[in-house]
Amino acid sequence: MKATLLKPDDYTRSPWKNGGGIFTDIADAHRDGAQQKNWDSLLWRFASTPIVAPGPFSYMPGIDRLQMVVDGRGLVLKSPAREFDEREPFTTVRFTGELEIVTELEAGPVEVVNLMARRGAAEIDLLALREPGERPLAVGTHLVYAARGECRIRLDDENFTIPGQGTLKVELTEPATLALVSGLAVLGSIRLLG
Q: Model pTM?
């Protein structure tokens, strides 16, 4: 097990793919040997971003996306085929990057976290940890994000305190047990394929 504490000062900021805003890149991975780290070389990315006005999402062919509101409420994603309801914080929605989506804000700006991965390169999951308790973690990369203030977790027999807006990046070569001890966290999990 390798655990690395990422603090907000470690994060980078970049423009959305469509230029409509700025996201905070918390952690990502790109293809080995990529000449440039860009959207074309991306394997997966965990990021946060404010959505302050209604507008279109970036077009990201070949990318699977998971999203969750962590601050604010009232977000609805509208596509020609269906709506994705994120009115309540810490609700995960899943959609593809090809989908034409426009945001609707019913109660002002929100902050969201996104976990995205190149389809066929990785399987991803995103969920809120709200109540103390244990859960198994599979082999892969796991990101424990302290969305609202400090949180404390235990990984197998090791204790960690994650400061507010901080992220514990955990790389597992064998299964482990994660326990939320206190606070509220968002868990992003990535399993590379092939």
A: 0.94
